[in-house]
Structures are given as structure tokens and as C-alpha cells.
Amino acid sequence: MVAFHPNENRLNDKPGDPGYEENLAAFEARIARGDKVEPGDWMPDGYRQQLIRLIHVHANSEICGALPEGTWIPHAPSLKRKLALVAKVQDEVGHGQLLYRAAETLGKSREEMIDELIEGKAKYSNVFHYPAETWADVCVIAWLIDAAAIVNQRMMAEGSYGPYARALKRICYEEAFHLTHGYDMCISLATGSKFQRDMLQAAINRWWKPIMMFHGPSDKESKHTEQLMRWGIKLRTNDEQRQEFLKKYLPKMFNLGLTVPAEWNMKFDESTKTWTYTEPDWSEFVSVVRGNGPVSANRLETRRLSHEQGRWVREALSAAAGGRPVPMPPAEAAV
Amino acid sequence: MTDTQWPIYEVFHQSARGEPHVHVGSVHAPDGDMAVLMAKEQFARRQACVNLWVVPMEAIVSTPYEDADMFEHGTDKSYREAFGYETTKRAKAVGDTADI
């Protein structure tokens, strides 16, 4: 019997280590059989590092995704919408925590991941580097970006790493409410006054580029995909996910009288049953996720401020648990 | 900055009286009481819940996955199973046609 320390089976897990090739072959055969990998199992260091990278970015995206939506909580158009938005933002932050825990089972601490996000050393989804200018942006994020995320997360939930797959199953269950509520909000605007319809279309026009980039670079450019698929981390390519999203949601958008800006040349090719479009500028995507998006600096500043403002709570909890006097909150925390 | 890396508590969720506690995930918390509070926020926001357990991860003793062969049966153990017997047929033969 062993104590439950999930992270420590790192013997000979790099190319060139004794026995690595045999272990790798057995590992890949297990994945090909559809077996799940659990913490404590032998895994190639490359698998571990790819998963840490991916889950860390995913967790950061949940946390940063709460920022554009959180900004709009005080301005929600009704109490019903406000309650739903508060619940959604709480879910996103909860998802971030679930995912940080999943990544921790691979040996990287939550503390490191949170610090790297604040210090601008870790990435998060391209879409949250853009501002939510109007209430309609909140509606578009909740409907179409959550829809795009669900396409990705349902796939990843079938992936080979047990803790990540388990976290994603719970996340997908909760995201179903976000998607439904987002669609509900978009139907309200699309069937509302001319001002509301124009506001929704303007938001779509602003968001279409980030949405088209959401699933990541085209298969022709994506450097990680092949290995991620061989290891059962990813089950479909970026372009396949993008097509699934477009096939399901473009007809729903058109049904609401919405359009896609003409420069995208969105056309359905009957022979291949796929949407064709003007390929996005992937160098822009790379630049945005590296922190050069329209509101990248503001997002990190908000995140850093929030982390600092919560410090007294963390210190108070630690003090109480350690039997020490609980410090008073700083004056500015009382507002 | 090392002020949130508290111990890990594994969380077990019971959806109704009479149901088993099921492992649903884990939380970081400075002590057990806070772990319960964190677990409630994280795992009981939606689905019905009547009871939560939190257990320090360090308290769990586990079998290693690489020794999973310890659970395999070395010999035919069908004699431990109801399906290992053809007793329905034999009971009929002796005149018992009711469920066994």
C-alpha cells in the first residue's frame, strides 16, 4: 500500500532515459486501447508537460473569462439577467479552480499557476483579450463563445487523462446553463427593438474574428495537434472543432436574422459539407494570446488587483486555522 | 506569494439520504471547516446535496495502479457468482417452478 502522493512517478520519463522507449510503447498502446491515465501512472514527461500547459491555459481562460462578464453585472438590464450573470461568473471561477486542481495532479502547484497568470507568463484564451463594449457583447459571449467552448470541452472530456476528463464532465454540465441563457438573451435582443437588433449585430461583427480564431490555428499551422492526438489528449483537430461549431450555430444565427461580416466570405460547400471562409491572420492570434490584444494589459491588471484585494482574506483564514489572531482587513477592503 | 497553497481535502458528496457518498473532487483549505465551506461552494451549487465529507488527502492510503493485477483472479471464481450455477434448471427438474 502507498500513501496518496499523485505526482511522483517520474522515473525514466524522457527520451534517452533507460527503458523509455519500452515504457512509451506500453503507454501509447494503453491509450490506443482507450484506457485512462491516472495520477501516479508512469507517463512520458512530454505528455505531462503538454497536459500541464493545456490545463493551465484552460484554467486561466475560465478565470479571465469571468472578467468581461463580471464588469457587466452592475449594468444587467433586469434582476433576472443579473442573477443569471452572477451565477455564470461564479461558475467560471469555480471551473478555474477545478482545472487548477486537475493540473496540480501532474505536479505544478496552483500557486505557481496563479502567479504565472498574474505575471503575464501564462496564456489564456484569445477571446478574453477583447473588450465587452455593450450588453450585447455579454450576450454573444454567453451564447457563441460558450457554444464554441462546449464543442472543445465535450471533446476534451473524452480525453485520456482521468482528472482532466472528470473535471470537464462537471464543467460541461454547468456550461449547458450558460449556453441556454446566452441563446435566450440573444433571442431577446434579436426579436426586440431596432436598437437592440443593431446592438446585437454590431457585437457579432466585433466578435466574429475572435470567435473564428477561438479553436486555435488552422491544422496547417498547429504545431501541437499531431502529438496531442496520438496521446489521446485531443481527439479532433482545431479545424474539425471549428467546423462542428459553424455547422451547428451559423444556421441558428441566420435564423435570428443575424449576418457575418461580408469580408469573411462564409460559404457552405455542399460537396465537402463544410464551411469555407477567409482564413484568419494567425499571426494576429499568436500576438493576441501573447498579451498584445486590445485589453490584455487591463485584464491582467484587474486580475492582479483582485488577487491583492483578496490577500487579507487568505491571511485571515490561514491565521484562524493556525490559532493565530485574525488580522483586520485594510481600510480599502471595507468598501 | 505562497499564501493560498493550503492542504488538499478530497470531497465526498451525498445526493440523498440512503445514497452513498461519492468522490467528486478536491479543494484547498486551511482547515477542515473551511474545506467544507469551499466544498459546498464548489460541488453543491446545483445538484441536490444532503451531506458532504471532506478528508485530508494525506490521510488516504491507496493501492498502486501498477499493482492492479492484485485484483485479477488467478483461478476461475465463478463459484462465487449466482451465474455460476444452473440451479434454475435443476430446481425445475425437481418440481420447483417458482423463482429461486
Task: Please give a structural write-up.
The complex is a heterodimer of chains A (335) and B (100). Chain A is built from 12 helices and 3 strands; from the N terminus they run E-H-H-H-H-H-H-H-H-H-E-E-H-H-H. By secondary structure, chain A is an all-alpha fold. Chain A has a single domain (36-291), classed as Ferritin, CATH 1.20.1260.10. In chain A, helix 2 (45-71) runs antiparallel to helix 3 (79-104). Chain B is of the alpha+beta class and 100 residues long. Chain B has a single domain (8-93), classed as Phenylacetic acid degradation B (Ubiquitin-like (UB roll), Roll), CATH 3.10.20. The longest helix of chain B has 12 residues, at 32-43. At the A-B interface, strand 1, helix 3, helix 4, helix 6 and helix 12 of A face strand 2, helix 1 and strand 4 of B.
Q: Could you give a quick summary of the protein structure above?
A:
The complex is a heterodimer of chains A (335) and B (100). Helix content of chain A is 61%, strand content 2%. Chain A has 335 residues and is mainly alpha-helical.
